[in-house]
Design a protein that fits this description.
262 residues
Length: 262
């Protein structure tokens, strides 16, 4: 049997047997000859040959152990990376499901709000028709008949409510956004705390719409509404003492949530 092969198989056992003591190479070489262990040329090893072979086997085993350790670490890293990718995929899937649920809730909220606003829109259309009849723009019972002109035809066909704008101090964007100055249907009910924003599906938290100020219906996020209304409030009220209780509440909330309000 090759001495090198024997050393590779028994090096650790031999080191444990000698317990850190120096090896007796003379005795070991004699034992190698007795059991028939030979060097690469098939000869009984000398002390010098055995020591050199022992050193080379040690280096070989150290290198093999390092390679095995590196392969194990690489396999562990690959497993960790696979687990991380799987967790990321699951997280992305959960986020997508969350967004889809939010979109579905927003769509359901829009349908619900449209259904709730329909009576108000129908009532506004009826009031508009009554005003048109009273002004003789369209024929009606008990009124002076007058042939409607071309301008009256779209109104009679669509019966859209009259839109109005608020009398507010004017500021250029971005100090106050254009949403604050949009025309709106005055027949629609004010947005209340707890109502759901149709655009985002999120509930409004900071009180109800303030009379005489932009409605939350023009906004997607409450912070944008607070910024515009807070700046308009300050323009109309240099001090909180002249505000109503609801206006003071909105002003305090805007100042606490928007550091650069003024």
């Amino acid at each position: 049997m090759s001495l090198r092969v024997w050393m590779e198989l028994n090096r650790s056992e031999l080191l444990r047997a000698w317990s850190g003591r120096r090896l007796n190479w003379t005795a070991l070489c004699a034992w190698f000859r007795e059991v028939g262990l030979t060097n690469a040329r098939g000869e009984a090893p000398t002390v010098r040959c055995a020591k050199m072979l022992w050193y080379r086997v040690g280096k070989f085993l150290e290198a093999r152990e390092a390679q095995e350790k590196a392969r194990a670490e690489a396999a562990e890293a690959a497993a960790a990376e696979r687990a991380q990718r799987l967790a990321a995929a699951r997280e992305a899937d959960a986020a997508l499901r969350g967004r889809m649920e939010q979109v579905n809730r927003a769509a359901a909220s829009k349908r619900l709000q449209a259904a709730e606003e329909e009576p108000y829109r129908r009532e506004a259309g009826e009031r508009l028709r009554a005003r048109q009849e009273a002004n003789g723009l369209i024929p009606g019972t008990g009124t002076t008949k007058r042939e409607p002109g071309p301008a009256a035809e779209p109104a009679r066909a669509n019966e859209q409510p009259t839109l109005v704008t608020l009398d507010l101090p004017h500021f250029d964007a971005p100090y106050v956004s254009e949403r604050a100055y949009r025309a709106f249907d005055p027949s629609l009910p004010p947005v209340r705390k707890g109502d759901v924003c149709k655009a985002t599906g999120i509930k409004w938290e900071i009180g109800d719409d303030l009379p005489g100020y932009p409605s939350k219906r023009n906004y997607e996020y409450e912070k944008d509404w607070l910024r515009d209304v807070g700046r308009l409030l300050r323009a109309k009220h240099p001090t909180n003492l002249t505000m109503t209780e609801d206006e003071r509440y909105v002003m305090r909330t805007a100042k606490s949530r928007i550091p650069d309000l003024y």
